[in-house]
Fold each of these.
Amino acid sequence: MIEFHRVSKHYARNAAALSDIDLRIDKGELVFLSGPSGAGKSTLLRMIAAMERPTSGTVTVNGQDIGKLKPSGLPWLRRNLGLIFQPHSLLTDRSVLANVMLPLMVTGTPRADAEKRARAALDKVGLLGHAASEPLALSGGEQQRVAIARAIVNRPQIILADEPTANLDRASANRVMSALKAFHGVGVTCLIATHDESMLRDAPRVIYLERGRLVDFPAEEMNAEVTA
Ligand SMILES: Nc1ncnc2c1ncn2[C@@H]1O[C@H](COP(=O)(O)OP(=O)(O)OP(=O)(O)O)[C@@H](O)[C@H]1O
């Protein structure tokens, strides 16, 4: 479970990137995070991963106050998280398979086991046939699915994806989103930030941010309701 309690974030000399956020995301939920550019979506995601600290308030992940996490606690947190952030930073001089094996190799998983699990992860995103390719030989959407495979190879409980369909054509975007939804289908908590309104249709839960604050509806809808 992820909880934000009265969380604000001020970057030096900037207006608040997040203001007084109260939020609870239960285990296994699929939640979309929407709102205009600069609304604070990335900041919110980065806080869950302890890549940013709140200026005030608390963020807890599975009961652990992230603000109080010592550096020695970071591996615990990151093991529970699959991060799909832009840019996806695939290593271009290694094969797709090697890229997906990397998170397992750095935590000391034996090579044969790592390879087996990486192949299973690639299979889940429909790219097993590209295991031996170099990332640059793949399309943008395929590269993004490799990044998803790399993020889930450690079997995280929570996936955080920041604009996973940015710069993709509709068909590739749909495939990326289907891959993410499949993980939600097996009980993984998924939090996905997106500008892409079409992804929000049929979404079980959408959280809108505007200028660092949670709003119940996007402004256009509120205006439409007011003028209706
Ligand atoms: N490292 C940083 N230093 C200073 N200001 C920052 C930093 N990161 C974000 N900001 C500012 O905080 C605010 C929120 O940014 P954030 O990237 O979280 O928004 P976003 O909703 O993810 O935007 P986008 O959709 O464009 O990615 C913006 O005003 C941004 O300029």
Amino acid sequence: MAFAQLIGYGVLTLAVWKLIQRRASKKANALDVAGPEKEHWCKGNMESMFVDGFQRCLDIAAEYGGAVKIHALFGEEWLYVSDPRALHHILVKEQHIFEENDGFLSCNKLVFGDGLISTLGEQHRKQRKMLNPVFSTSNMRELLPIIQTISHQLKSALVSNLSARSEHDHARYRESVEVDVLPWLSRSSLDCICEGVLGYHSAALDTGNEDEYTDALRMLGPSITKTMIFRPFVPIVTRNCSLYWRKKMVDWLTISWLPTQTMRNFRELRHIVEIMDSASRAILQEKRAALQLSSPTPSQTHDTSGGTREKDMMSIMLRANASSSEVDRLSDAELLGQMNVMIFAGLETTTAALARALYMLAKHPQVQEQLRTEICGAMAVYEVPDVDHSHAKDESGSARLSYDVLMNLPLLNAVVRETLRLYPSLPVLTRRTTEAASFPLQFPVRSASGEKIDAVHVAKNQRLVISIIAANHNQAVWGEDASEWKPDRWLKSSEGVTPGEKDGVKYSGVYSSMMTFLTGNRSCIGFKFAEMEIKDVLATLLPAIHFALPSERDDNGNVKEIHWKMSGFHTPVVKAPAGDGETPHLPLSMRLVRE
Ligand code: HEM
């Protein structure tokens, strides 16, 4: 075994050496744009920008403009981009030149298989063609009842939390109880995505439910973050070793007696991937069998399990795949890849957005009250008997809004949009050039020598950071109050004002003119699902529960103060001294809304 280990670490050393060589060769192609001084000989500007660097990421764009040279690890130079014209060029016009980077793609392939976030070029295009119609508005409309059932379960779980803590009924209305809502939001997002996308009954909101697959999915995101350190080596190993040797290396690296935390993390990820893989295979087989048994008429949407299963996206995708031409058809490996990718892409992103929306409403009680009035008003209208709706009441008799009403409530829409704009779940992304290229700028920046330039030239293999946050906070298009949370800005379209557009200049995002879900053919395919879920959860919780920022004092007299930490995602933590500043928590003070 010692020999095997030696080989394993030998290959790792070779990989590190190749990495250093590659980075050294890039020195010859220095970027000619201005940017901040290097802050650390090895870490460059990486730490201050990307380890809890929300404000720094905004400040750099405000100081240097929409294309900035930043210093990455080991002396490498990256381009930090947020200019609207540049982003359109990079993400839409010449997307084939500005691709996802090798590390991202290779790691995704290992973890998720052949899904959308692991493929490039023609294969990616073919997958998008199959999947785009699955996320159509008419399919979302069909899915809403599934989401509504889960939102109501979430509401019941939170309300029972209040009941458990306040013994007397009158106290439940008067007294506030502090609850960490984050685990509940995360469970409800998991149920939404499992039921809506896979048609798999995860029952994560049922805390008594022990399900290996659901647990694995919950741990997936954090486990990937913990093993980021391996990411740069994966493409090198993938390029230079056959599948046999790659498997052998993973075996050596995950042998149980290697004691370090990094290896433990790696083993944990491997275990999660194995569980995910076998569960996805079982679900795929089950869905296939159900489809073969069901009637071929497209109108049939009922099955033995309660009438909703075949409305899930997986079933829709399988039906579309079966009836497509052989050239367009996705292989089983690709179908399995999509299942894994959807869960990963839709889980933490939506949880983070929902958590932020509730936090912002807790921070702005007046907006919360106005929104509650809007939702309750819509529900009251909805209870009028002649209104045409198919799912107006749930089993507890509460009103449910139809898809069209839910998606068109003006203030709900404004709150969701403003939250997603200001606090995008994925604040930055990376890209790499496949060949030398140049792109134009909307707003000129300075070159390294101080001249004004309106285009940037980049060499092959140049790394870029797409700054979604800097784009969404850009004062040149959003106005001077760009960094303030003002849902009102979305209510002015009737006055002829388009939010995010100034003098005809705007970002070309798929969702309004913000970059939260990106643009181009790698943009978020699930944004309609995310928007519907966030709106439905808010519309279900607010009529029943009032949310406020924490105000209880602990034994030392400290009140919990929430800080949103930016590390890949935006995560709420409780600041010291009331919290550890590390563990994700979102304690909010809750009380029942009096009927
Ligand atoms: C608030 C919630 C969400 C946000 C902010 C978000 C944002 C994004 C962004 C920025 C990308 C581009 C990533 C890149 O290019 O590297 C992306 C891609 C993607 N998203 Fe989302 N997303 C959300 C929810 C969802 C949901 C609910 C699903 C699925 C049901 C989903 C599925 C995907 C997929 C499959 C991709 C890859 C698309 C491709 O490469 O072609 N996302 N998302």
